[in-house]
Design brief:
Elements lengths: L8 E5 L28 E5 L6 E4 L3 E2 L3 E2 L5 E2 L13 E2 L1 E2 L6 H6 L2 E4 L4 E5 L8 E6 L4 E6 L3 E6 L2 E6 L3 E3 H11 L1 E6 L4 E4 L8 E5 L4 E3 L10 E6 L2 E6 L3 E6 L4 E2 H39 L4 E2 L7 H15 L4 H16 L7 H5 L6 H5 L1 H8 L3 H11 L2 E2 L7 E3 L8 E3 L2 E3 L1
Antiparallel strand pairs: 1-2, 2-3, 3-4, 5-8, 6-7, 9-12, 9-15, 10-11, 11-23, 12-13, 13-14, 16-19, 16-22, 17-18, 20-21, 24-25, 26-28, 27-28
Helix pairs in contact: 4-5, 4-8, 4-9, 5-9
Length: 414
């Protein structure tokens, strides 16, 4: 490896993530030597320009070099073992975030579906499980071609060329996995803008997560989140921002999950079948219990009487079949002919405590707009003496009634 004239000093530290060539000799000043350090890779080059660079796995830069100093300095890795190399210039400390440290020994599969995990480090060994896209695993031991991993209950070997390692895996996860903000308190308010007094659009319970809006800008005090496709904000101090990754599955776990899913589908199919059978029985019972139509004495009625009865029919059975609407009309006519109230259509319909729509004002609203043509036809036929309920004088909704009788649609007549 060669450096131009501007390079005065450099250093390389070996890592579990990758291996780089040593470009400067290590000193024996009491610091650990290169062979003592096996945590990670850091390269630093001091130049005549105002900046040097430090790379971790060749993915990030965290260290700068000041050219105006000729002090001897020791390069350190904060949070890892310190290792020394004297160079010309002052090297600031290399710092990794807690998130980067957490991912230093992690990997993710470089696949669109899943990566097979095997018992041994060869292609012919037995498959023990799968790492699906978005799953995160811990590196147990990395070899030249295969790496031993652990993820959930799954342990085994994966091919190196099919994986992202360390910070490369972290960068991939940030691009391909959902990032969530998890509330650390009860009743965390999500707001419409980055303002403590802004409109509250949602309230999160303790431990509840919400999707982070990675395309939106937010200052250091807020995290941008998504609420119904709109960008909102939560206070950063009350949330933990996490990458939503999964874990691998063993073949046994996958088989159990598949069996559970098939059992769920079978149960849903059985429930649907039973509901259909129950509906068929209900329809059969309805057909058997509905009496034949009869034609009795007609009831003298004016046009206003027809409209009034039609309006009541619409209120009581407007969403039911024509036969059900006719049945409601027949019940009213049967009451009139039996002398209910004062023996008039008006008296029967407005009799206290009998027909709800007449008491709530619903009947008047329908009258003001005019009843439907179907309701008018049912009223006219009922007033002409047609009876399809066998002379009964009451009805209820099937769902709210324990009465037995003639079931037509969703109503029982008795």
């Amino acid at each position: 490896m060669k450096f131009n004239k501007k390079v005065i000093g450099s250093m390389t530290v070996l890592s579990s993530l990758c291996v780089m060539t040593t470009v400067a000799a290590m000193t024996n000043n009491g610091e650990r030597t290169l062979a003592d350090h096996n945590k990670k890779v850091v390269t630093v080059a001091y130049t005549e320009s105002s900046r040097g660079r430090a790379g971790f796995g060749a993915e990030i830069a965290r260290t700068s070099v000041e050219a105006d100093s000729v002090k001897k300095a020791t390069i350190k890795e904060v949070g890892y073992e310190a290792i020394g190399e004297q160079i010309e210039g002052l090297v600031k400390e290399l710092k990794l975030s807690d998130e980067e440290k957490d991912w230093a020994s992690a990997l993710m599969p470089k696949v669109e579906d899943f990566l097979l995990v095997r018992t041994e480090a060869n292609q012919d060994s037995q498959v023990v499980g799968k790492l699906y896209k978005g799953n995160k695993a811990t590196v147990v031991e990395k070899g030249e071609e295969w790496t031993k991993i652990s993820s959930g209950n799954l342990q085994g070997y994966v091919r190196n060329d099919m994986c992202y390692f360390g910070l490369e895996a972290l960068n991939y996860a940030k691009q391909s996995c959902q990032i969530v903000a998890v509330s650390k308190t009860e009743g965390l308010r999500v707001r419409a803008s980055q303002d403590a007094n802004a409109e509250v659009t949602k309230v999160l319970s303790n431990g509840e997560g919400i999707s982070v809006d990675t395309n939106a800008q937010a200052n250091n005090e807020w995290v941008a989140v998504k609420v119904n496709d709109a960008t909102n904000f939560v206070s950063r101090q009350f949330v933990d921002v996490k990458i939503n990754t999964g874990v691998g599955v063993t073949l046994e776990e996958e088989a159990a999950a598949k069996a559970a899913e098939e059992a769920k589908k079978a149960q849903e199919a059985q429930s649907a079948k039973e509901a259909q059978e129950a509906q068929s029985v209900k329809e059969t019972q309805t057909t058997k219990s509905a009496p034949a139509r009869t034609t009795g004495s007609s009831l003298a009625a004016s046009a206003n009487d027809v409209t009034l009865l039609a309006a009541l029919i619409q209120c009581e059975a407007g969403g039911e079949s024509y036969e059900c609407q006719l049945a409601v009309g027949a019940v009213v006519v049967n009451r009139v002919q039996s002398g209910y109230a004062d023996g008039t259509l008006y008296g029967v319909i407005y009799q206290r405590g009998q027909f709800g729509p007449a008491m709530t004002g619903k009947l008047e609203r329908v009258l003001s707009k005019g009843p439907s043509s179907t309701s008018v036809r049912a009223a006219q036929e009922a007033l002409s003496g047609v009876d399809n309920v066998g002379g009964v004088k009451n009805f209820r909704d099937v769902s709210s009634s324990s009465y037995s009788g003639h079931v037509i649609g969703g109503m029982v007549f008795f």
